[in-house]
Amino acid sequence: MNDEKKPATKPWNMKGGSPNQWAPDYLRLAKKNPGFRCKWVRQDNVERMTYQGWSLCKPKDYGVLTDRTISDATPISDRIQRRELILMEIPEEMAEQREAYIENKNSAALKSANDRAKQKARQLTEKMRERGMTHRMDTEEEFSQRVEI
Q1: Which of 4, 9, 54, 84 holds its CA 20 to 30 A away from the CA of 99?
Q2: pTM of the complete model
Q3: Structural domains in the chain (count)
Q4: What is the pLDDT of residues 35-78, one digit of tens each?
Q5: In this structure, is residue 115 part of a structural domain?
Q6: Would residue 6 count as lying in a domain?
Q7: C-alpha angle 33-37-41 in degrees, rounded to nearest 5
Q8: Residue 73: predicted pLDDT
Q9: Could you read off the pLDDT of 81-125 as tens digits, one per residue?
Q10: Average of pLDDT values for 122-137?
Q11: How far is Cα 38 from Cα 13, in angstroms, rounded to an integer?
């Protein structure tokens, strides 16, 4: 009899597929539309995303079935929907411009926050100096020398 144990399987390290190959991926698309980025959006955010330049994806561009009613399997809309998510797309150029805008906005906000923090630190340092204090930590020996003088 063979006493060697078979090594444990590690599904998180599987090559060539997801660890849960038995679980269907409802959000995977059959094909991509060149020149566009797509994103799954909740139904209540579709209007907001439309104002930001996103548009509803057409099933013919992504190779998926349209929504169908349960009773007669006829298309009820010309959009791609999975439960409460709707697929939307934006031209690649516009997506890159949007990313650059957001990056600039975030950088400006970070710079502003850093400037405010530095200004507050300077103010606190000045208040400490006015009261004869320093912002650096003294050893007991340094403190006792400073206090005795």
Answers
A1: 84
A2: 0.56
A3: 1
A4: 999 999 999 999 999 999 999 988 888 876 555 444 444 455 67
A5: yes
A6: no
A7: 110
A8: 44
A9: 888 889 999 999 999 999 999 999 999 999 999 999 999 989 988
A10: 81
A11: 28
Question: The tokens 């399987």 sit on which residue?
Answer: 9
Mean pLDDT of the chain, nearest integer: 79
CA–CA distance, 52 with 42 (Å, rounded to integer): 15
Q: What residue numbers bound the domain in which 119 lies?
A: 29-128
CA 37 – CA 108 distance, rounded (Å) = 26
Is 52 domain-assigned?
yes
d(CA 127, CA 57): 60
Q: Closest Cα partner for 31 from 69, 58, 67, 53?
A: 58
> ∠53-55-60 over CA atoms, to 5°?
150
CA gap 93, 81 in Å, rounded = 25
Rounded Cα distance between 105 and 111, Å, is 10
- Look at residue 91 and tell me if it is in a domain: yes
CA separation for the pair 129, 7 (Å, rounded)? 66
